[in-house]
């Protein structure tokens, strides 16, 4: 065969070998192989909630260890052995505990007995069952997406990444981890976005670590809010950014992205944080995102009045820690004076406060307990409460559970703000309602406080603080406020005792002849010493700190150690004042038994 015939034959073979049909069949095989390979990889790296799921845990850079640790988690199971979607979403490292935010389902408070906190050392192996464990401090509800688990701090030289395990039926941990782990990051409480809420077409984000000046509005141009559905930094496509409108203390207000403001329901569950652009020598540097544990959550209407658009005339908001023995007397008394709605911000109580609040709510006191796990954030908590109350309340009082409004006998010369004579039931509500109808410019009503001492007692008075403590200092100290939520400045600036108001509104100081607050500040030592644990206000030094020892926020001459002075029962006693005691017995005691309602309840 000549060379030309051979060339023609090779061309025919090549055309047959690389025909379009042949090429498509090869490409199809390659695509199928790639698809199955990807599927296998996904099944290994993506949490499908299967018992065969084995992701790798990587310790955060915030680990207490000098070297990194990685381990395999064997499975995700619930307490009965079936599949469970619960996962640890975030961790926050506090000075005295580690807070775990657990998503995927609701944990009951009783679950603390079924869980253990797990800690890994440098040479521990989870496959061999090597780890340390401690009892859970507490379990609590949080928002509509997550629960809270509080764990003790890790032992020395252990990882800061605290995990959870279920207890075995015999009290020994099994091999299987009870929760999937979504993130190994441990957030420092010194630098984290910790809470957020909606206010109209804006989002309000609460942030630690911005280091803004107290009681001052800051320049908002250096801040942005970032919204997204996934993990930060995983994909910029899922993030919206809006400008900050105001910034003050720990509160940054931003406009909502347009897609969310048109339909606020879309905001439910969205993550949000704040980005800051630091300026050094008048030069802007790269924007830095603050670590965040925040998901936006709006619980919606909680009672019929709110759902119908009808507001309560008078509400009260407070932040408490372990005030279960005191809260019933305080709420019963002020409900008699006309308080219609209660917001209790629970700051990590472990004394059964939640059970007392549930009882009071069942008794129609219209009280809501809001879990607020963030320490030393009273100002931020009150700002958050003011936003919540705006749709429910015409007026809201910010006060502590050891503070009681008292109306002295009104003489003919003191009738500007209330009726002549003794105060009657609902007098406090009538007083604020009078301002609602007569003066649209008053946005805040301030009332002076008288500080009461132990009054010679060595143990808590069995009939309550209003009856037991009757000796006080002569001159009033500070004041507390009742505010109109719609009159507040958009910064929500407050210094606990009072808020900044919008232009056009002003505050009013009530004369002491009209109303006074009895502040049972210096109670018997076993009650007072609890103040040394921690104070709730952000910008007030704790009692054990050697700062501002001469301030009125502290006990004069007490020092920084919780050591009872020998003359404590006689301290802070300059004037005997039985006005509120007599008022309480006259108006609230049972006519047949003489028992006060909070005493009668404890006796039942």
TrEMBL record:
GO MF annotations in UniProt: glycosyltransferase activity
Protein name as it appears in the record: Glycosyltransferase family 92 protein
Membrane-spanning intervals of the chain: 21-44
Keyword terms of this UniProt record: Glycosyltransferase, Membrane, Transferase, Transmembrane, Transmembrane helix
Native organism: Sesamum angolense
Annotated Pfam families: Glyco_transf_92
InterPro entries reported for this sequence: Glyco_transf_92
Enzyme class: transferase
Membrane topology of this protein: Single-pass membrane protein
EC number, as in UniProt: 2.4.1.-
Family to which the UniProt record says this protein belongs: Belongs to the glycosyltransferase 92 family.
Predominant location category: membrane
GO CC annotations, alphabetized: cytoplasm; membrane
């Amino acid at each position: 065969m000549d060379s030309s015939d051979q060339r023609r034959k090779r061309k025919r073979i090549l055309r047959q070998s690389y025909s379009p049909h042949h090429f498509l069949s090869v490409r199809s095989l390659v695509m199928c192989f790639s698809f199955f390979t990807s599927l296998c990889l996904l099944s290994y790296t993506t949490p499908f909630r299967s018992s065969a799921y084995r992701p790798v845990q990587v310790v955060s850079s915030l680990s207490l260890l000098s070297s990194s640790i990685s381990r395999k988690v064997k499975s995700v199971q619930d307490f009965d052995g079936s599949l469970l979607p619960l996962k640890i979403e975030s961790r926050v490292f506090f000075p005295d505990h580690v807070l775990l935010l657990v998503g995927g389902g609701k944990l009951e408070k009783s679950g603390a007995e079924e869980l253990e906190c797990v800690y890994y050392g440098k040479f521990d192996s989870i496959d061999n069952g090597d780890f340390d464990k401690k009892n859970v401090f507490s379990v609590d509800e949080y928002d509509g997406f997550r629960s809270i688990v509080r764990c003790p701090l890790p032992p020395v030289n252990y990882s800061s990444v605290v995990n959870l395990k279920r207890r075995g039926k015999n009290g020994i941990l099994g091999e299987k981890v009870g929760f999937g782990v979504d993130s190994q990051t441990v957030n420092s409480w010194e630098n984290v976005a910790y809470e957020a809420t909606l206010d109209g077409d804006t989002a309000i984000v609460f942030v630690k670590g911005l280091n803004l000046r107290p009681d001052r509005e800051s320049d908002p141009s250096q801040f942005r809010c970032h919204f997204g559905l996934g993990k930060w930094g995983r994909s910029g496509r899922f993030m919206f950014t809006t400008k900050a409108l105001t910034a003050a203390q720990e509160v940054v207000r931003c406009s909502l992205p347009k897609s969310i403001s048109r339909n606020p329901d879309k905001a439910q569950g969205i993550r949000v944080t704040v980005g800051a652009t630091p300026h050094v020598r008048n030069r802007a540097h790269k924007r830095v995102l603050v670590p965040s544990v925040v998901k936006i959550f709006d619980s919606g209407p909680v009672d019929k009045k709110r759902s119908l658009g009808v507001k309560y005339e008078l509400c009260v908001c407070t932040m408490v820690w372990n005030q279960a023995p005191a809260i019933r007397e305080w709420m019963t008394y002020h409900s008699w004076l006309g308080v219609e709605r209660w917001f209790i911000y629970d700051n990590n109580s472990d004394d059964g406060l939640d059970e007392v609040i549930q009882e009071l709510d069942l008794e129609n006191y219209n009280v809501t307990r809001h879990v607020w796990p963030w320490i030393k954030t009273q100002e931020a908590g009150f700002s958050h409460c003011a936003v919540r109350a705006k749709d429910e309340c015409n007026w809201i009082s910010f006060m502590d559970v050891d503070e009681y409004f008292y109306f002295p006998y009104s003489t003919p010369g003191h009738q500007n703000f209330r009726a002549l004579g003794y105060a009657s039931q609902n007098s406090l509500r009538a007083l604020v309602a009078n301002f609602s109808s007569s003066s649209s410019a008053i946005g805040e009503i301030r009332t002076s406080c008288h500080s009461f001492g132990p009054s010679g007692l060595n143990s808590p008075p069995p009939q309550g603080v209003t009856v037991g403590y009757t000796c006080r200092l002569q001159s009033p100290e500070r004041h507390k406020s009742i505010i109109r939520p719609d009159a507040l400045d958009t910064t929500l600036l407050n210094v606990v005792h009072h808020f900044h108001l919008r232009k056009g509104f002003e505050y009013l100081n009530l004369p002491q002849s009209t109303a006074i607050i009895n502040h049972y500040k210096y109670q018997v030592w076993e009650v007072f010493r609890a103040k040394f644990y921690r104070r709730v206000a952000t910008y007030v030094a704790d009692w054990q700190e050697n700062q501002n020892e001469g301030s009125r926020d502290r006990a004069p001459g007490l020092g920084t150690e919780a050591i009872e002075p020998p003359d404590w029962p006689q301290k802070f006693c300059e004037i005997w004042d039985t006005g509120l005691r007599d008022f309480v017995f006259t108006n609230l005691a049972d006519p047949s038994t003489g028992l006060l309602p909070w005493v009668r309840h404890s006796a039942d």
